[in-house]
Amino acid sequence: MATCTRSSTLSRALLLPYLHSRTQTLCEPIRIARFSSTMKQPRPPSLFVRSQAKRGPFLKQDQVAATSDLEFEAPLNIVEYPDPILRAKNKRIDSFDDNLKKLVDEMFDVMYKTDGIGLSAPQVGINVQLMVFNPADEHGEGDEIVLVNPRVNKYSKKTVLFNEGCLSFPGIYADVKRPESVKIDARDINGARFTVNLSGLPARVFQHEFDHLQGILFFDRMTEEVLDSIRSRATGLGKEV
Ligand SMILES: [Zn+2]
Predict the structure, then answer these.
(1) By the 8 A CB rule, do 170 and 42 touch?
(2) Ligand 1 centre and the CA of 129: distance in Å?
(3) What is the pLDDT of residues 3-48, one digit of tens each?
(4) How many Å lie between the centroid of ligand 1 and the Cα of residue 205?
(5) Are 71 and 100 in contact (CB under 8 A)?
(6) Is the pTM value of this prediction over 0.70?
(7) What is the pLDDT of residues 129-174, one digit of tens each?
(8) What confidence tier does 239 reach under pLDDT thresholds 50, 70, 90?
(9) Residues β-bridged to residue 160
């Protein structure tokens, strides 16, 4: 079982000043949780592996989001595949105002309602560089993490398989191979820059959501064999415009 001590994989000491502060519960165990509601247990790793995941492009040239890009209506709804919003470019955020805080609150709300542990802004129809996650998957437990304009500085050489789901693909779960840990930098909800190392489940959730910010979907990283195993439940994977 994960304990308060083990949750140091989250580099909590580093993240703490930057956590979104809707919860004060800092010692709740981090469970091996699911990305969405219907996965009861992580399956054992598949035997199928593939070369290391593709890296997302560096985003220095990203367009900056205008106020209108961040407009939304609550409650938010999850955008499901094959909506082209999931493949669209996501703009960089440089306005750290009340609207952004409200958007983040709404994203956490829809994430908990749908039993997710991570959510990216394009998944609620907002094409900006923003993600939220909470590996504890319960409001009031664990730490709520908000990353704005995240970048990856370094991936670990070690990779691991994990059975992933995605709120934009209800009912689909499959093994995806990713680096075990990542060093990232990002801005927090107030615009302050920070750097942090993530490993274990937080690194897994981060990489899945970071892919969304590049328009990459989890099946893009599955082996052909794994894809074949889910194709009957997700016809047309990879065939969208
Ligand atoms: Zn997803």
Answers:
(1) no
(2) 14
(3) 333 333 443 333 433 344 343 333 333 333 344 433 333 433 333 3
(4) 9
(5) no
(6) yes
(7) 999 999 887 788 888 999 999 999 999 999 999 999 999 999 999 9
(8) low
(9) 178
Determine the number of helices (DSSP H) and then strands (DSSP E) in the chain: 4, 7
Estimate to the nearest angstrom the gap between the alpha carbon of 138 and the chain centroid: 16
Q: What's the gap in Å between 150 CA and the centre of ligand 1?
A: 16
Question: Long-range contacts of range 155-161, CB-CB < 8 Å, 24 or more positions apart?
Answer: 155/52, 155/55, 155/179, 155/181, 155/182, 156/180, 156/181, 156/182, 156/199, 159/52, 159/53, 160/45, 160/204, 161/45, 161/46, 161/49
**What's the sign of the alpha-carbon dihedral 204, 176, 174, 82?**
positive
Domains, the chain, in order of start with CATH, read: 6-231 (3.90.45.10)
Residues serving a catalytic function are 209
Task: Write the single-letter amino acid at 83.
Answer: D
Query: Cα(199)–Cα(8) distance, rounded to whole angstroms?
Result: 9
Q: Around Cβ 43, how many Cβ atoms within 10 Å?
A: 13
Strands 130-133 and 118-120: antiparallel
Residues in the chain: 241
Please say whether the beta carbons of 94 and 64 come within 8 A. yes
Question: Ligand 1 centroid vs 216 CA: distance in angstroms?
Answer: 9
How many angstroms separate the alpha carbon of residue 83 from the centre of ligand 1?
13
The whole-number average pLDDT for the span 98-104 is 98
Q: Which amino acid is at 191?
A: G
C-alpha 204 to ligand 1 mean position (Å) = 11
